[in-house]
Amino acid sequence: MENDRLNNENILNKNYYYNEFKSLGTNYNDMKEIEIYDKRMSSLRDIKKEIEDIIKALDIKEEDTLVEIGCGTGEFSIEAAKRCKFVLALDVSKNMLKYAKNKAHKRRVNNISFYNAGFLSYAHKGDLFDFAISNMALHHLPDFWKLIALKNIKSMLKNNGKFYLYDVVFSFDFDFFEKSVEDWINQAEDYRMKESMRKHISEEFSTTSEIMEKLINDSGFIIKSKEYKSGFFAKYLCIKK
Ligand SMILES: C[S@@+](CC[C@H](N)C(=O)[O-])C[C@H]1O[C@@H](n2cnc3c(N)ncnc32)[C@H](O)[C@@H]1O
Fold it and tell me: Is 119 a pocket residue for ligand 1 (Cβ < 6 Å)?
């Protein structure tokens, strides 16, 4: 009897789900790592242009709503919130959310809700979103769970809602796997960055472009456009079927 009760509770708690709250690769719960990440990203990436390109590709308007999954230090969510009605920013790291919330406060942006949940654990209730976006976060899940995550994202969107995905996805020549990876890691400017790229390859779950496209299609999105860069990066603009 007791066992039945426990089993039923376990099923209800969905404890067979992948635990997306455990940290992989870089520890995004560590405040020091978060500060380093934020500084590094603003020097490595042209964040302003990245954000502008996404806003343009999605054609985000004042009356639109958007959910970002894996918002990190909040750069995209905050800028997007200045251009639309409401942004829901999700992340599994409480400290990332704290950092992002503080940044939004400093920039006087208050039409954002920050919420501690991820691709798998977030259960949306309420009005559906016009847009979903995820930058550099989906590779934290193994492939099967990426599919479940994509299905969950689809369920949060209005019909014809758009989903923009940017991530590390492999499209290099797999006959030259080691050379490709070593060249990629060696181009990093400092030891810390090299270490985080090494961990990305050895501990995280980036997959191939063929698998990623299949997962996106199987989850019920149509890939409207895609772009592969330097064998390691991919951007997809997807529409809910
Ligand atoms: C490499 S950072 C990217 C942050 C930001 N999107 C950017 O482009 O700079 C990855 C982020 O994804 C978050 N993350 C990892 N697994 C996640 C999951 N299952 N659901 C939601 N967020 C996740 C991490 O906590 C971290 O903030």
Answer: yes
